[in-house]
Amino acid sequence: MEKLKKNEQENKLKNEKKEEQKDAPAREESIDEKLKISQEKLLRTMAEMENQRRRFEKEKQEAFEFGGFNFAGETLTLIDNIDRAIVSFKSDESLKNNKDLNKIIDSIEIIKKDLMSIFKKNGIEPINCINKKFDPNFHQAMMEVEDQNKEAGIVVQEIQKGYMMKNRLLRPSLVGVSKKSAKKADKK
To answer: Contact at 8 Å (CB) between 129 and 157?
Structure first.
């Protein structure tokens, strides 16, 4: 019994010493080391804050420049509808005999001109694509048109005008692209 009690006491002492060793730090950090660690943390924090400030500044600038991006995209349908109205009036046989038709069309074209002027002031420009090489960054091919006079991949028809806003694509041009006919391709 006594041996058991002695063994238990010895084990308790060993466990207490182990716990004391765990609680005590491996070594005391000197003041210089603490200062160095604090300076590194401060420098990292300052760099992080500067990066965050730059990010916020960039986001603010983009919000200012492109805040109306969605609105501009939605207003493009106005131009499309004005163009359709002009074409519709000019091709309507029952209106061709109307002496006021040209006044109506002129009025609509003045509205279109004013709207295009507002777009231009806000950095919205149409994409010129006819007779240019097809570029998927600015054009969306809707069909291929056989054309022996043009090189393959040239835009020959514009279905819907595309627009840019301050060097950012607002809407791609919907286009028809030239291709060589199958008969001539077989001969080659």
So the answer is: no
